[in-house]
């Protein structure tokens, strides 16, 4: 596949988990604004373009869970796969103080082109992986910045996000992580429910157990950090899943 919209790891692994990374990279395909969104490299290296450290954590965590993983292969600023197709933030024009020039005048045909070439293929592959067995459990991996511009510092080391429609894994996971002495956000730094997002689409609607984990990105900045967090999270995820009997 040329210019793939996603990467799949360990498709044949036997575990129940599916580990996902919606914001794995800051890559801009060459056919979008000649491969640039019109912002500088410093901005493209920030959390506005991707979830810093999340891809490495996803890879390591999937290995430890003997699980397949799917990672996006395009920047969230090109089009955000963790939004519904009708979400006004699907193609961001302004994010954390940065104007995105290539998106300011993105019209309906341009958005449709990005949907067709990136967003929809990613979600089709995601759906195929989730449907590979009847008892799939989804763990979505994200990261968050320690501080948005002009805002207070965020104290949490890790956040566990969930919808009110399914708290079966999230609430026990929050308790288990706090038992390890971690500062854990309960639906922080964001609310865990957004109509049409990836968890809504692939977990809540079909009724699959799920959890979304957000790790503060300064804590997973290096490969060694990512491995350490995978080593910390994997056994807790397995223990909580077993304890719930799901």
Key traits:
246 residues, 7-stranded mixed β-sheet, Aminopeptidase, two-stranded antiparallel ribbon, 7 helices, alpha/beta, single chain, 33% helix, globular
Amino-to-carboxy terminus distance = 36 Å
| Low-pLDDT segments, ≥5 res | none
Question: What is the share of helical residues?
Answer: 25-40%
CATH topology: Aminopeptidase
CATH architecture: 3-Layer(aba) Sandwich
Rg result: 17 Å
CATH superfamily: Zn-dependent exopeptidases
Total beta-strand segments: 9
Q: Strand-and-helix sequence, N→C?
A: EEHHEEEHHEEHEHEH
Mean pLDDT: 94
Q: Strand share of the residues?
A: 15-25%
Structural class: alpha/beta
Total number of helices:
7
Count of the separate structural domains: 1
CATH C-level class? Alpha Beta
Shape: globular
Please characterize this protein's 3D structure.
- With 246 residues, the chain is of the alpha/beta class.
- The chain has a single domain, classed as Aminopeptidase (3-Layer(aba) Sandwich).
- The chain is 33% helix and 16% strand.
- The protein has seven helices and nine strands, in the order ββααβββααββαβαβα.
- It has helices at residues 41-44, 54-64, 101-104, 108-130, 170-179, 198-204, 223-244, and strands spanning 6-9, 17-21, 69-72, 94-95, 98-99, 137-144, 158-161, 184-186, 210-216.
- The strands form two sheets. It has a seven-stranded mixed sheet, with helices on both faces. It has a two-stranded antiparallel sheet with strand order 4-5.
- A hairpin with a 2-residue loop joins strand 4 (94-95) and strand 5.
- It is globular and about 50 Å long.
- It starts with 5 loop residues before the first strand and ends with a helix.
- The mean pLDDT is 94.
